[in-house]
């Protein structure tokens, strides 16, 4: 049952993914709160040109078309004339809510936070990945969508985080989760699950901010009972990672670039199955196993037709495809996974729709 669908935003480059289910839509499987969602918008109001460059305004955000392209100014990060606030598309009776806290990639798109998601089940949050801005994205989602998410993201409830892999764009938000002053106030015991190296990462983060922790103690706070523990997932292929009254969480070993340890997570709740692939790469049968009959598959892909505009991967189109598709799913591979797994709905994240400035 289709609950809500944003009007289609024209995709540049013509990539298609042929699957039986909808893509980037919300069904009864969950609520999807998009921090960047397509919707009708007002016409931009152009201010005076600056230095002869095209300029305009997008929802009161001034924009001057860059003449000097760097990782900070690539066309993929330019503003689109669409609302960027989260939209609650959930059926009122659902017990499982999917919140897209961040859908960006490593380039610093000012309109997308880093990859980070929350599954809220019966009011309890379970976080997946912690990209740049995750803490502030939770605040934005709570402020816009009312008490239900405000209660779900109450700091004392932020106890569980699952990492798909340890690349910086999926983990750089961890310090803000572990070191927030609220951890001391609410005595939060946080559990972070992820590939081998997760425990060391958590320990090193806590050690790196030892001065801050000691200052908190000097100010009268006691971090005892408000700690974080990292847990390395060590099994070969797949298995149970965590279970409570709300969710069963299984991890499936996958392959992303040159990393030896990456995982997809399958969350089974009372009324839904939600799967997070993390970043992709070549076809992997464990992705299909993880996503089998899923209500929602949160995943990623890279434009293929416009891949020549990617600012990395090589000097030719062939070289870019060979390198980039070791890191991310091509539309063809994603379609194969979705069809073989019988996925009902795909939600795309980690936006990588490379374009030219003219497009």
TrEMBL record:
One of its GO terms (molecular function) is 3'-tRNA processing endoribonuclease activity. Keywords: Hydrolase. The keyword Hydrolase applies. Residues 113-312 form the Metallo-beta-lactamase domain. This is Metallo-beta-lactamase domain-containing protein. It comes from marine metagenome.
């Amino acid at each position: 049952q289709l609950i809500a669908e944003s009007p289609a935003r024209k995709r540049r480059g013509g990539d298609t993914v042929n699957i039986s289910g909808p893509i980037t839509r919300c069904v009864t499987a969950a609520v999807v709160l998009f921090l960047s969602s397509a919707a009708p918008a007002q016409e931009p109001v152009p201010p005076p040109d600056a230095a002869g460059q095209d300029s305009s305004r997008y929802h009161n955000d001034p924009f001057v078309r860059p003449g000097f392209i760097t990782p900070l100014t690539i066309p993929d990060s330019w503003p689109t004339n669409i609302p960027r606030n989260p939209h609650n598309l959930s059926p009122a009776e659902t017990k499982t809510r999917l919140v897209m806290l961040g859908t960006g990639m490593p380039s610093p798109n000012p309109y997308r936070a880093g990859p980070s998601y929350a599954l809220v089940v019966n009011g309890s949050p379970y976080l997946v990945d912690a990209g740049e801005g995750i803490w502030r994205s939770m605040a934005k989602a709570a402020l816009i969508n009312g008490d239900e998410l405000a209660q779900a993201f109450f700091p004392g409830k932020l106890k569980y985080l699952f990492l798909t892999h340890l690349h910086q764009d999926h983990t750089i938000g961890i310090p803000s989760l572990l070191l927030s002053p609220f951890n001391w106030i609410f005595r939060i015991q946080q559990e972070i699950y992820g590939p081998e190296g997760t425990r060391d990462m958590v320990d090193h983060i806590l050690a790196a901010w030892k001065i801050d922790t000691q200052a908190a103690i000097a100010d009268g706070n006691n971090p005892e009972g408000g700690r974080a523990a990292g847990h390395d997932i060590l099994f070969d292929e797949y298995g149970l990672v965590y279970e409570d009254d709300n969710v069963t969480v299984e991890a499936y070993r996958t392959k992303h670039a040159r990393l030896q340890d990456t995982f997809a997570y399958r969350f089974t709740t009372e009324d839904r199955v939600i799967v997070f692939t993390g970043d992709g790469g070549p076809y992997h049968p464990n992705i299909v196993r993880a996503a089998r009959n899923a209500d929602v598959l949160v995943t990623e892909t890279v434009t293929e037709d416009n891949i020549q505009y990617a600012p990395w991967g090589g000097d030719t189109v062939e070289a870019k495809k060979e390198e980039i598709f070791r890191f991310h799913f091509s539309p063809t591979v994603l379609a194969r996974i979705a069809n073989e797994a019988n996925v009902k709905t795909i939600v795309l994240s980690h936006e990588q729709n490379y374009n030219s400035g003219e497009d």
